[in-house]
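Forwarding the complex inputs:
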Amino acid sequence: MDSTQQPSLVDTIISPEWLIPVSINGQKLDKTLVNHSVVIDKGTILDIAPNHEIQQNYQAKEHINLIGQALIPGLVNCHTHAAMSLFKGLADDLPLMLWLQNHIWPAEQQWVNDQFCAAGLQLAMAEMLKSGTTCFNDMYFQPHITAKTAKKYGMRATIGMLMFDFPSVWGSGPEEYLHKGLQLRDDYKHNDLINFAFAPHAPYTVSDAPLKKIATISNELAIPVHMHIHETAQEVKDALKATGKRPLQRLQELDLLTPNLIAVHMTQLQRTEIELLARNGVSIAHCPQSNMKLASGISPIQELLTAGVNIAIGTDGNASNNDLDMFGEMESAAMLGKVFCGSAQACSAYEMLFAATMGGAKALAQDELIGSIEIGKAADLTAINLNTISSQPVYDPISQIVYTAGREQVSYVWINGQLKVREYQLVDFDENELLASAKHWQQKISHSIN
Amino acid sequence: MDSTQQPSLVDTIISPEWLIPVSINGQKLDKTLVNHSVVIDKGTILDIAPNHEIQQNYQAKEHINLIGQALIPGLVNCHTHAAMSLFKGLADDLPLMLWLQNHIWPAEQQWVNDQFCAAGLQLAMAEMLKSGTTCFNDMYFQPHITAKTAKKYGMRATIGMLMFDFPSVWGSGPEEYLHKGLQLRDDYKHNDLINFAFAPHAPYTVSDAPLKKIATISNELAIPVHMHIHETAQEVKDALKATGKRPLQRLQELDLLTPNLIAVHMTQLQRTEIELLARNGVSIAHCPQSNMKLASGISPIQELLTAGVNIAIGTDGNASNNDLDMFGEMESAAMLGKVFCGSAQACSAYEMLFAATMGGAKALAQDELIGSIEIGKAADLTAINLNTISSQPVYDPISQIVYTAGREQVSYVWINGQLKVREYQLVDFDENELLASAKHWQQKISHSIN
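Prediction (whole assembly, two chains):
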C-alpha cells in the first residue's frame, strides 16, 4: 500500500494474542497465528493480517486488544431443544423411558406454549452467548417463537420445521406440520440470520409417507434435515422388530441419506453404515454428554472422522445435558472418543474444535458464511481469555481451549459483527430479569408436580 | 435456651439458601436443608440449626448470607500430582507411552526440582481453592515442598511418601525413600492440616520387599497407602506375563488390601476382584477424566458402589487431565458411569457428590474430621452460587451442582474455619504474580523443548 494513502475507516479491529482460523478454503487448518489482527466491517471479516499492516491500513471505530486471549470462530451448537431450559434438572438420574414418560412428556404437555418457549429461549440464548455459541440448530415445539426470539436477540439459528405423526401443541399431524414449517420458512426468507431445516423428530415417530415428502423437497431445495437417528440400541432393536430394517436402511430407501441430512446421536453404527454415511455425505451431530447422561451409547466419532464423515457437536436440550456449554461438550467429545477407541491420539483437541465450529457450519450448509475466521466470512467470533490460573501456562492454545478453558473465560462474542458479549457481560439481556423469570417458572412448575 | 441468656460470640455464621450436609454419622444423607445456618468457631462447626434459632443463640464476628447459594463440604481431590501444573498442555493427544517417554519423563528429568515444585504447587493450590477443593491427596517428587507449600497456604493435604525401585530427584532407592518419607511425616506430626500416606508409585515400579515393608508399617500405624493400580489393560497383561499374577492378587499376598489402601484408577476389574476390594475395605480413587483422556479404560464405579466399595474422586495431575477441577470430575464420573453400565440411574449426582467429599475423607481416614457438614467437624466448606443463567432454574440443588455448576460459581471457601476464597477471589494469593510465574516457566520449558 502506498504510504501516503489514507487508512480505511472500518467498524472494528480485534487483536488477539492467538488467532485460530480453524479452516481455510474448506480445508482443515490446525494452526495458530500470533501478532495478527482481524478487521470487521459491516458484519463481515474484511481483512486478516499482521498487526503492523492492519495498523497502517485501517482506522477502526473500536479497536479491541485481547492480550492473553484467543480468538476462534463462534461456536456452532448443532443440536438443541433450547426452550427446554426451564426444565433443566427437573428429573435427573432416572431411566430414559421413566424420565420421558413420567416427567418430561407430562411437563411438556402441561407447560409448553408460546409464553413458556419465549421465556425458555431467552434463558437458553443468554446461556449460549455467554459460553461463546453464536449459532444453534434447534428442534422443538413453537418454532415460530424460536425464530422470533433468535431474530430479536440477533443470534444465528437454524430453526427446525418440527414433524411427528401425531398431534402436538404445534400441529395436528404431518400435513399441518409441513405446511406451517414451510410457511414459517417463507416468513423469514429475507433474514440472513435465521435459516430452516426439516426436523422430523425420529424414525420411530414419523412414518414413510411424510419422510418421503421431506426427502423430495429437501433434495430439490437443498434444505437440511435434522433428525434423531440411532440414539439407543433399543430404538434399532424396536425398528428391526417392527420393520425388519435398521432405521438407517429405511432412511436410505426413503432417499434421506444425502449431504442435507444432520443425523443426531448415532450411537449405534455398524462398519458398513459408517461407510454408507461417508459415501452419502451425511453429517453427524454428536452429543456426547447427552448420550452419556441418558446412557444412550457412544458414537464412534474417530472411526467416522477416519471414514471422512463430517462431525458436528451439539449439547442436546438443557433437560438432558444439563447445560448448553460447548466447551464442556468439546472436552467430553475428545475424552469419550479417546477412551471409546482405546487411543489417546483419537479425537484430538483440534478435531473437536473443528467439529464445534466448521463441522457445524458444514452440517447446516452455512460453511461459505461461518465456521472459520476467513476474509469474506461473517464476523461470528468468540474470544477466550487464557490468562487464568486454570489455563496457564499456555504451550498450545488449542489444547488449552479444549482441555482447560471453561465458559467463564469467554470475554467477547460477535455475531455478524455485532457485539453480543462485551467483557464477559451480555449486551442485549438483563441478567437479573432472566434469573427472576427462571425462578418464577420454577415455582409454577414445581408447584404443579409436587 | 432461656430467652434472657446472652447470645454466644462466635467467629462466623453462614446462612446459605441450601445447606447440603452430604453425610450424617458416617451414613449417606441425600438431603438438602433450607433456612438453616452453620456456626463456625475456632475452626470447628459449632452448630447447625434453623436460622431463627441461630440468630437467637449466637452473635458472630462475621455473618455471611448466601442467597441463591449452596453450601457443601469442601471438595476432597483424592489423587493429584499437583506440582505438575507447569506441564499442563505440554503434550496432548499422544499415545500414553509416547507421551510419557518422549515428553513427560524428559521434561521431569530436566525441570523437576524444589523451585519448579514450589511454583507448580502454588499455581495448583490456587486452582484447587478457586474451584472449591479444600483437601488434596498428592503423589509427586519433592514431597517436602508439597508439605511446606500446603502448610504455608493453609490447605489440607495428604502428602505422599513417594517410592520407586529406582533413583529419582527425591531419593536413591526404596531405603532412602522410606526413610525420607517417614522423617518428613515426623517433621509435621504437630500440624493438623498436613497428613501423610505411603505412595509406592505402582505395582510395576516397586518390588515385593519394599511393598511388604510398607504393608507392615501401614497396618501397624494405620497410615494410608496411595498407589496407582490397574490403570491400563497393558499393566495387567505385563504383570501376568512377568509374574503370572494380576497386580491385585500380588498386592493381596503382600497384605496391602486393607482399609488403608487408596487404589487409584482401577479401570481393569473382574467380578471377584470387586468382591475382594469390598471385603477388604479398600477405597478407590476414581479419575474419570484422566482415564478417558489417556484412553486408559473405565472403572466400573456403579458395580463398586453396589458392592459397598468406598469411592473417592481425583483429578490426577494437570498434565493428564488437564485441570484440577472437581466439578468437571464429578460430572464426568456421573456421565461416564451411566454410559458405561447402560443405566441412566447409575452414579447419581448425589453419589458423586458424596464420593467427592465424604468418599475422599474416608479414603484418607479423615472422615471423623472432614467430608460432611456436621457439628464437631472441621469447618472445611465450599459455597456455590446457583443464581446464574446456567444453573437456573433450581429444582434440585444437588443435581444443579453436579450437572450445571462450574468452578467459576465457587464464591467462598473455608478450611478449618479460615477464609481461603472470598467473593470469588483468593485470599492468600496474588493472581498476577502466579500468572507471571507460570509464563516465566512456560518460556523456559518451551525454549528447552523446541
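Chain A has a mean pLDDT of 96.
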